[in-house]
Automatic annotation (TrEMBL):
InterPro entries: Fatty_acid_hydroxylase, Sterol_desaturase/TMEM195. GO terms for biological process: lipid biosynthetic process; membrane lipid metabolic process. The chain crosses the membrane at residues 20-38, 50-78, 90-108, 144-167. This is Fatty acid hydroxylase superfamily. It is found in: Endomembrane system. GO terms for cellular component: endomembrane system; membrane. Residues 95-228 form the Fatty acid hydroxylase domain.
Length: 286
């Protein structure tokens, strides 16, 4: 594959169409939620918080344009040496790809909560004390520099790299609608199978019984299978158990946990302690 073909795959492929559709859907959802919030005086938005969300989302989108190319190059490289087979793009293979993508996301997401380094890269998404549609794009762009490695088994199995990226993006777009308080409950059968606003409000809450629960992207079945599911019962309290020192500073939101890790590593007395401070659980104590 020459550079011209690769450029076409990155910027003129189905992902670009999906991204355009998702952008329009995101703006529409945000506008509807804002109107409902204002008309019913729900106070779901705070100006500075929303501005930070949009700024972080814009920064992430900018980085993703370049990382998308790196991701595809990496997947094609993996396939050129170790691909097990060729999986055609059929309805059944795409369905399997959706399931496998969601399973990988579940474990990647869970690791991002249970290992301190990965939590440092993910904590920005949980740093808001408000939950609305704009929270969906609040995140740390740094994790995109290694995230694609976790998805390499799909390329190794023989799935089309373009479809891997597209399905992963669709999974992200689905999650836009679940960052909201205006949708109370979906039908019972839907709540049992799929991730919903009620399930994701639990995930963003700092209530003791809600911490580290409901990791799924599209499906909630993985949480039910692996014991991390929690039903929404009491009102969620959003934010972290220990919020960033400057709650509306983009630099502080992105780096505060990385700085905390560095401070702990400096006082470590052994390589074991260094490892625990970096990759142990976020609340690990020496």
């Amino acid at each position: 594959m020459n550079l011209q073909d690769l450029f076409h795959k990155i910027f003129a492929s189905p992902q670009s169409t999906a991204q355009a559709i998702a952008t329009v859907a995101f703006i529409s959802l945000l506008a509807v939620e804002l109107i409902i919030s204002l008309r019913k005086n729900l106070k779901l938005f705070e100006t500075k918080d929303t501005a930070v969300n949009l700024a972080l989302g814009g920064l992430t989108s900018f980085v993703k344009v370049f990382i998308k190319g790196t991701t595809l190059v990496f997947f094609y490289w993996v396939q050129s040496f170790w691909k097990i087979t060729d999986i055609p793009n059929t309805w059944w293979s795409i369905l399997i790809l959706f399931l496998l993508n969601d399973l990988i996301f579940y474990w990647y997401h869970r690791i991002s909560h249970e290992s301190r380094f990965f939590w440092a890269m993910h904590v920005a998404h949980h740093s808001s004390e408000i939950l609305n549609t704009s929270t969906a794009i609040r995140g740390n762009f740094l994790h995109f520099f290694y995230r694609f490695v976790f998805w390499s088994p799909l390329a190794l199995l023989g799935f089309d790299p373009i479809m891997i990226v597209l399905v992963d993006e669709i999974s992200f777009y689905y999650q836009m609608y679940i960052h909201t308080e205006i949708i109370h409950k979906m039908p019972r059968w839907f709540e049992f199978i799929f991730n919903t606003p009620a399930h994701h409000r639990v995930h963003h809450a700092s209530n003791a019984q809600y911490i580290d629960k409901n990791y799924g992207a599209i499906f909630i079945i993985w949480d039910r299978l692996f014991g991390t599911f929690e039903e929404e019962k009491e009102k969620p309290v959003y934010g972290l158990t220990k919020n960033p020192p400057k709650r509306n500073s983009i630099f502080s939101i992105i780096t505060h946990e990385l700085i905390a890790i560095a401070k702990d590593v400096r006082k470590a007395k052994s390589l074991k302690e260094v490892w625990i401070y970096i990759f142990g659980r976020p609340n690990a104590k020496m």
